[in-house]
């Protein structure tokens, strides 16, 4: 059983659309944009559903027709799956819209960005807008480019709508990082960083307990995982003490024999924080920045097949010129 929220209860706002509208209102009023790191499957579609209601009911004032960009190929594909399979994916409320001929995940001002050129164009759009982009924890994908362009601007808001694991860029931002590294560059965090709890796809402690205690007969062994170390241990202890389940929270690398019913190998915790501290000086060194730049260049080159021959020849020439210079030093 997972334990992502095994130590807390969801405190969802009484009206999520109203709470989201308040974030949009104050950001647009100061001339900024709302950047949402959003998981591609499920979370993005929920956000579109709420934004459609915000627009329909006029919950944001003075910014009629504000644009919304979904900038994630996976999220775009997933949204199509939801729309094409409404009878399986939607609840009664959403199905009611479909019955009236309304697509609950579509509205005026919505743009789906497919190509990398579409994605780059978003950050040249001067209008206040909403950007929904993956990944949800800011560890990969197009969201990192939007953060690079948006974190420095105090008019903007970075809105988190899902769990942020320890060690991720999203977690660092929520915990108050004053500057972060993106593509080898140090970016100062001036934007408003905020979070709307309660929309996560992970169940809270009550939901998890309801699920694990409904089995008859009770499971012979419960393995608690997918949570921070302290939460895994706390939730496993609660299952033992309160519900008399044979529960344990094994660390990565442990081996349990299901036939014998015993651990063959029990691993301990790995000090992630120490590993991260050791990596920081290298990442900030000139050589570390050079390797980061090389990694970024490699990714760009691999995506460059669709560019014009003129651009490809120009960039190839610049790269070869640098190589020639280094070879002769």
Tags for this model:
single chain, 329 residues, alpha/beta, 6-stranded parallel β-sheet, two-stranded antiparallel ribbon, 13 helices, 44% helix, 13% strand, globular
Give a structural overview:
By secondary structure, the protein is of the alpha/beta class. The chain has helices at about 15-30, 45-55, 75-85, 85-90, 90-100, 115-120, 145-150, 170-175, 205-210, 230-245, 270-285, 285-300, 310-325; strands at about 35, 70, 110, 130-135, 155-160, 180, 185-190, 190-195, 220-225, 245-250, 255, 260-265. Helix 1 (about 15-30) packs across helix 2. The radius of gyration is 23 Å and the shape is globular.
Regarding quaternary structure, what we see is: single chain
- Mind telling me the C-alpha Rg? 23 Å
Strand order in the sheet with the most strands = 3-2-4-1-5-8
* Span between termini: 58 Å
Q: For the residues shown, what is the average pLDDT?
A: 83
Proportion of strand residues? 5-15%
Count, helices: 13
What form results from the Cα inertia axes? Answer: globular
Series of secondary-structure elements, N-terminal to C-terminal: HEHEHHHEHEHEHEEEHEHEEEHHH
Overall helicity: 40-55%
Number of extended strands: 12
In the predicted model, the low-confidence regions spanning at least 5 consecutive residues are: 274-284
Largest sheet properties? 6 strands, parallel
Structure classification: alpha/beta
């Amino acid at each position: 059983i997972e334990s992502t929220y095994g130590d807390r209860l969801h405190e969802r706002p009484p009206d999520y659309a109203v709470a989201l509208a308040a974030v949009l209102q104050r950001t647009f009023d100061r001339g900024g944009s709302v950047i949402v790191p959003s998981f591609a499957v499920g979370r993005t579609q929920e956000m579109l559903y709420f934004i459609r209601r915000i627009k329909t009911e006029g919950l944001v004032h003075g910014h009629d027709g504000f644009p919304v960009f979904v900038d994630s190929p996976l999220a775009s594909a997933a949204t199509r799956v939801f729309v094409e399979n409404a009878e399986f994916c939607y609840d009664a409320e959403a199905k009611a819209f479909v019955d009236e001929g309304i697509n609950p995940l579509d509205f005026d001002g919505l743009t789906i960005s497919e190509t990398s050129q579409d994605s780059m164009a978003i950050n040249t759009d001067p209008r206040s807008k909403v950007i929904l982009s993956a990944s949800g924890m800011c560890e990969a994908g197009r969201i990192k480019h939007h953060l690079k362009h948006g974190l420095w601007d105090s008019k903007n808001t970075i809105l988190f709508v899902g769990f942020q694991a320890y060690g991720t860029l999203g977690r660092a931002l929520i915990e108050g990082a004053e500057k972060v590294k993106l593509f080898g560059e140090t970016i100062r965090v001036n934007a408003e960083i905020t979070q709307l709890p309660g929309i996560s796809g992970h169940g809270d402690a009550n939901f998890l307990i309801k699920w694990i205690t409904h089995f008859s007969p009770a499971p012979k062994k419960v393995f608690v995982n997918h949570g921070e170390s302290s939460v895994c241990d706390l939730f496993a202890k609660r299952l033992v003490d309160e519900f008399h389940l044979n529960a344990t929270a094994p660390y990565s690398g442990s081996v349990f024999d299901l036939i014998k019913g015993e651990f063959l190998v029990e691993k301990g915790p790995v000090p992630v924080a120490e590993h991260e501290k050791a990596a920081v000086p290298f990442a900030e060194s000139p050589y570390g920045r050079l390797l980061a730049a090389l990694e970024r260049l490699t990714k760009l080159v691999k995506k460059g097949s669709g560019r014009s021959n003129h651009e490809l020849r120009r960039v190839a020439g610049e790269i070869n010129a640098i190589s020639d210079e280094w070879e002769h030093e």
